[in-house]
Backbone:
């Protein structure tokens, strides 16, 4: 019997666990459309210590489609927390009296695990610090499996900001449980840290680093693009140069296989040209919807 | 069969369309009290890129009375939108995966139409830029019809800030589909733009401009008062002078017909004296409630 | 038949009224777990003119457990209120059209009573100014009665900031309807105002002031600790001295009776050492949950 008392890190899940979540997500496709009363009476608390409209609304949509209710806050500074310098532990021990499950976004690494330690109700990590965003990794996996009908055997490019993006870290860790080939394509300044590459290799992944976006999109099944943030660059000219190089336009799509797909955790700024949106490879908005069904699955498994 | 795929501008509606909405609003009076499950399982997203507590809560009350659920944001800067420089098109293509209908307030003219173009789910304009606020115009019409038992044949004064107020623009356009006489009464600096007056006249409205609040309230059926905003005046002394002149007090109410009514989109500051609230002419708080039933009608028609 | 049209001040409630609320709270214990549809279709408006995540979420949890819905705002400046300089009276006369009950937190003394005067729907005071927080006092009484199985005959210490804390003022007034002994323990600068002490004595309470936290915790049944706020002290050194003196650590718990309890309205900063949390005397997190059931009782009584 699968147990999902909390969902803190992709590291806590075996491949078997992940498969249960993906299978449950597939079952949720119909429920997402028809809606259900499965979690009627249940209350989800959304504690967003930093704003993330997208992730918050995705979880809320999932909870509402299952018939549950939502309370919480959308953007509270860490310092004012439950107010006035309260510790995270105290905030959690308070909110656990108000709700049946906590969905938390927090700017500090390790915060979700601390929350889970103190909480008597399940905690779902909706992004903690720069390292973990497990539900994003799960919805990415689900998108890949749904769109490509398998994960094993695929070649997947991770592109853009591989140094700071928590999304690619969690996804890389999740993919290491599968038999896939990984291409890493990032500007010099935003390359994935060697320690993480080593960890991926040790877990059996075939990882290569490439230098250009052209190499990243050729001969792969999935291009996973991420946003390159201006504020990562001390020199704005360096950013402008990189921005121009690491973009997907119709030119790059033309180099892709016909059945390959482009994913992106969104929000997208310039790194995928708007013209690309109309191509069959562009699947990042469908990916958004997959986030709702994956989170429905996670909520359903937590309460089952 | 009446179709309401979106509600972007009062210009998109024929008189026939408007009548269907007003008739449906009348039917919603009972539902508003008894509540229903008509939209059970449906999700409304409220995207408020500028704050408007009144309009947002009115829509939420309407959705909840119909048994639906709500998610969204109450006050997000345009620049941070779905976060970090995302375009409105991308925000819409994301949120349409979370909800069944979008209610949007946005500071830019034309934003609601852009949203509707990109959205696969219906979009309701809850105020865009300085021009459009169609649901306010509809609730105003509904208030007039409910309180005066007709619209054709009435004489209606539009007073206050006729230059910047999007409410009077939308209402003026809506009234041009009826056989009414319009008086316009505004301080010199806040007169309605000639282009809009011309448009109203061309559509067959009998429009006269008057100079004083006394002329505005005499021999009319409806006085539609709006707020005069201090920040519109470069010179504070000019504002103070105008503020004193364009006010409704018991003195002006005394000049009104006994069965005439005063409406106001609210919030009201000084332009209607608090003593007026107790007179039978003062109907602006009843107008608030009419906003709930009108929005229930709009939501019901969109999903029917 | 008990009527609860509004809940503005603990002064408005007789001991008999309070007992009805506490008895109803006890009945809500089971409903809080099983959830109900008692208030299905009903809408609660939460108007928080100053933020209070804890109180707001507690009320929302109570309403959701009873099957009702929630709309409102979590943190709106008083000046922008319903927007743009609107009076509280106008905001209330607007919101009463959107909801069935108003829960209001406001920074000004007397604001809740003003709101109730203008409102046609019930108003619950969720904290007004520095004086009143009646639902906190009721949940405190309920916690004491539930944990100690009585209130009459107990000795209760009120500790910490007795000058500015609205919680201790409301609780003191509530306790004056019972036959209890009160110890007051506060730093010199934060002593309870003589007028309030006089009022408590006149109503028959046995009140003594003590100087140290040791005296406060000895030979009492309940220690009610409150937060000492740095910003109350003109000189930071004075604050640091006081902070060190008025703390509950394992040392102080060792002086307490075995069956005595420590309560705290939370948030807690330094005034109760984290080590104390694991002792059987520490009951402040259970107190949080009692807030949910007490507010369920209040909502249920208002609608019954």
Residues:
């Amino acid at each position: 019997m699968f147990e999902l008392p909390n969902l803190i890190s992709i590291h806590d899940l075996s491949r078997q666990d992940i498969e249960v979540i993906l299978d449950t997500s597939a079952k949720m496709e119909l429920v997402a459309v028809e809606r259900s009363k499965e979690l009627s009476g249940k209350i989800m608390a959304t504690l967003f210590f930093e704003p993330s409209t997208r992730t918050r609304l995705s979880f809320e949509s999932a909870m509402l489609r299952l018939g549950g209710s939502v309370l919480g806050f959308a953007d509270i500074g860490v310092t004012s927390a439950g107010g006035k310098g309260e510790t995270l532990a105290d905030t959690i021990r308070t909110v656990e009296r108000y709700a049946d499950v906590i969905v938390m976004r927090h700017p500090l690494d390790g915060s979700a695990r601390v929350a889970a330690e103190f909480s008597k109700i399940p905690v779902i990590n909706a992004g903690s610090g720069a390292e973990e965003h497990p539900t994003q990794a799960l919805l990415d996996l689900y998108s890949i499996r749904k769109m490509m009908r398998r994960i094993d055997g695929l070649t997947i490019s991770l592109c853009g900001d591989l140094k700071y993006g928590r999304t690619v870290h969690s996804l890389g860790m999740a993919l290491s449980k599968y038999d896939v080939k990984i291409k890493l394509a990032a500007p010099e300044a935003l390359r994935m840290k060697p320690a993480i590459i080593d960890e991926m290799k040790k877990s059996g992944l075939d990882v290569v680093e490439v230098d250009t976006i052209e190499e990243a999109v050729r001969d792969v099944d999935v291009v996973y693009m991420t946003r390159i943030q201006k504020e990562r660059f001390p020199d704005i000219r360096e950013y402008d140069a990189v921005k121009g190089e690491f973009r997907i336009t119709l030119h790059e799509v033309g180099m892709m296989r016909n059945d390959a797909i482009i994913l992106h955790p969104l929000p997208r700024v310039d790194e995928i040209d708007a013209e690309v949106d109309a191509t069959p490879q562009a699947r990042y908005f469908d990916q958004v919807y997959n986030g709702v069904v994956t989170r429905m699955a996670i909520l359903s498994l937590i309460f089952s």
User: Anything to note?
Assistant: Chain A has eleven helices and nine strands. Residues 135-288 of chain A form a domain with the Rossmann fold fold (CATH 3.40.50.1370). The first helix of chain A runs from residue 15 to 34. The interface with chain C takes residues 41, 43, 45, 69, 71-73, 76, 80-87, 89-91, 93-95, 97-99 of chain A (CB under 8 Å).
